[in-house]
Design a protein that fits this description.
This protein is α/β, with parallel strands linked by helices and 139 residues long. The protein has a single domain, classed as Rossmann fold, CATH 3.40.50. The chain is built from 7 helices and 5 strands. It has a 5-stranded parallel β-sheet, sandwiched between helices. It is globular, with a radius of gyration of 14 Å. It binds cytidine-5'-triphosphate. The site of cytidine-5'-triphosphate has 17 residues, from strand 1, helix 1, strand 4 and helix 7.
Length: 139
Amino acid sequence: MGLNIFTAGTFDLIHSGHVNFLRECAQLGDVTVVLNTDEFIERYKGKPPVMSYDERFQILSEFRCVKNIFPNWANENCAAVVDDLRPDIVAIGSDWAKKDYYKQMGFDQNWLDERNIKLLYIPYTQGISTTDIKRRLQG
Ligand code: CTP
């Protein structure tokens, strides 16, 4: 039986870094993307995404490497979504290894251990990001 892989993210202005990340996740099992809502992104980043939730959802739903997409209904309390879905692995790009991903998600290592959930950092694709694309567009 394959593993269930959970990842939460925004996936605005889909780019090759996202594709590499999701492809790596899909090597491990069935990928569920928990997609941040427009409201959460606006609160977290101070402005809404370029592409709406529905637009981001529509593109991701065409990806062979993505099995399920759900809204991040718990927003700031994303651990509640992990608790509901009970994946085998929570995957995130390794850019987060330098930041406090535990705090971001609202869980800690004990919480994950109690549920037998592994946290996995996937190698980040250097040189491209949504932020970088916005910068490129400004010329
Ligand atoms: N990701 C990645 N490589 C990149 C960009 C993103 O592996 N070059 C991963 C992130 O680590 C995350 C997922 O893709 O697990 C979704 O990232 P997201 O934050 O939506 O995209 P970014 O391009 O990082 O957006 P921003 O620049 O706004 O932070």
